[in-house]
Amino acid sequence: MSRKLQTGNLSLMKGAVARASSIFAVDESRSYREVRVDLLDPNPGQPRTYFDEGALQELAATVRGLGVLEPLLVREGDGGRYTIIAGERRWRAAGIAGLELVPVIVVSDDLDPAEVAVIENLQREDLSPVEEARALAKLQQARGLTHEQLGTMVGKSQGHITRTLALLRLPQEVLDGIEHNRDVSASALRAIADAGDVELQLKMWSAAIDGSTVRQLEAMKAGKTPGGAAGTANRSGELTFAKLINKFAKASEKGLTLLRERKAGGASLTDQDRARLVATRALIDDLLK
User: Fold this and answer.
1) Which among 8, 19, 87, 257 is most buried, taking Cβ atoms within 10 Å?
2) What is the average per-residue pLDDT within 179-198?
């Protein structure tokens, strides 16, 4: 299946080229193009050798329905071939989805191998928010980029870059504990980072581990929760229930998004699928009574 660039995405692609030209040495008149999937090669220095098959299949379902919306960054090689600088997961997903063409931006300057490794790591779906922040900070320092330029390089919005880098203001105790408390959301971490006062940040972190919502954390920051984390610690049953609801909501949002994308890509519900969804809805309705 050959997929040409959709008209509605022309302005997006032009913007991507213009932003990339502020970072790389590119010829704007010929830097953006659509290239055959089989003419692209992964970076031989790619430090990542394992790609989660399930995650790739999920990305392929999105690509199948919408195409590859964010161009890959590539270098032009010999014999009409190209080497991928950033975007190998998108390339692999495009191949799984059966696309013949993908959008690319051709850059002419050579990135340091260490920088390439950082860019590729930022394409991973399993990074914690702080792992992402540290990788972004390393890349920003190496090339002296603005947040907008950094976002262009890694395929993220300027706002996402700014919010993510702000997490590095967290106390070291929090930074050290994130690896063992990955259920704490990026939104919760941002709320804690914005608190400023270290003592308050540590109290908010303790409450977040116990399952406090972002709204509850914001209330602590505003001084509306007497006793801080201790004010909620006695309601252990409520916190456990809140934590379960948070986990269910996160999983459900991700699952529903994937289901919508696959349906948009042509998948259809079987009678058994409908029965399971109806049963799940009945359980939720019962909880809301």
Assistant:
1) 87
2) 86
CA-to-CA dists, residue 258 to 59, 123, 264, angstroms: 9, 19, 10
pLDDT, average across residues 267-287: 71
Q: Are 131 and 139 in contact (CB under 8 A)?
A: no
> Span 262-280, mean pLDDT?
71
Residues for the chain: how many in total? 289
Q: 139 and 119 in contact (C-beta within 8 Å)?
A: yes
The reported pLDDT for the residue numbered 231 is 44
Residues known to be catalytic: 88
For 87-152, the DSSP string reads -HHHHHHHHHHT-SEEEEEE--SPPPHHHHHHHHHTT-SS--HHHHHHHHHHHHHHHT--HHHHHH
Exposure letters 82-91 (e unless 16+ CB within 10 A, then b): bebbbbbbbb
State pTM to two decimals.
0.48
Give the strand pairing for 82-86 and 32-36: unpaired
